[in-house]
Every structure is written in structure tokens, then in C-alpha cells.
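Notes from hallway chat w/ T.B., transcribed later so I don't forget. T.B. wanted the structure written out for a chain they're using in a teaching module, and asked if we could keep both sequence and C-alpha cells in one place. Agreed to drop them here.
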Amino acid sequence: MIGHILPLSMLPSGKNASIRRLAEGEKVRERLMSMGFIPGIDVSVVRNDRHGPLIISLLNSRVIIGRGMAQKILVEEYVD
């Protein structure tokens, strides 16, 4: 079941979501896409302590992303 759309930085540890939209700005979008953050891809939050970087699982990899960049990724949370 699909839930709310929110910035990736707000998704708690252990939650899954689908990337819906990336921030405006060509350079930011290119950087995020080069890391695998592509609209339509599923992601899982491995760690989000609400401060500092997040650890995200996507495309069979783990990525560490800063909170500012995570704020620029809008996701749709999967609700249990």
C-alpha cells in the first residue's frame, strides 16, 4: 500500500519507499542520478538518526547521503 510523499530525510529507519521526484537544478539532479537515485526506484532506509547522514539501500547497494541531499529527494512511503 502506498502512503505519503515526503523528503527522504524524513523517512525513519527500516522504512521502504519509491523515489517520486528529484529537486530542481540540473547539477543536483545529475549528481543524485549518478548515485542511483532515479525516479521509480525503490529505496530502503537502513539508518536515519534524524541528524547527520543517512544510510540508504538501493539497487543492491548501500549509499551514505547527507541530510541536505536527502531533503531534495521526494519519496512515496510504502505503508504496511
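Follow-up for T.B.: The chain has a mean pLDDT of 93. Might be a good example for the class.
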